Amino acid sequence: MSPGASLDAETLRAELAEDRPPHAGPWSQSGVAIVAGLVGLAGLIGSLALGLGRLTQPGPGLWPFVVSVVVTVLSAVLAVVGRPGTDTEKFSRASVLTAVAIGTLVVFAGLLPVIGSRSRRCC
């Protein structure tokens, strides 16, 4: 690599660091770990209610159970290891757009059964 290329890379890193929002801090890391852990635990409870079945005849809750275990374990790891991390960002306008997108998906998922049941009645 030529000396000019490394200088360009360093300049680019400096410019990107200037544009980045401030760090959210260790409390946000802990909050994210707690929320993810609660989501994982809710998934565990829900998948157990569906029934796990057996490995030879899996029930409808087996794969959600596996994914929920992974989410719960990773949230525990984040709670222990992720606290000093500096890769989180404070909430900004882009965060609001993400929240709106997630809310739209939740509303869409909630309306699917209603829309589907009405379309079967019409024809």
Keywords:
single chain, 123 residues
Question: How many DSSP H or I helices?
Answer: 4
Please mark out the parts with pLDDT under 50 across 5 or more consecutive residues, or reply none.
Answer: none
Query: Helix fraction?
Result: over 70%
The string of secondary-structure elements, in order, is HHHH
Give the termini separation: 68 Å
How many β-strands, per DSSP? 0
Q: How would you sum up the global shape? A: extended
Radius of gyration (CA) equals 22 Å
Write a brief caption for the model.
This protein has 123 residues and is an all-alpha fold. The chain has four helices and no strands.
Structure commentary:
The protein is extended. It contains 4 helices and no strands. With 123 residues, the protein is an all-alpha fold. Helix content is 75%, strand content 0%. It starts with a helix and ends with a helix.
What topology does this entry show?
Blueprint (H helix, E strand, L loop, with lengths): L2 H17 L6 H25 L11 H20 L11 H30 L1
Helix pairs in contact: 2-3
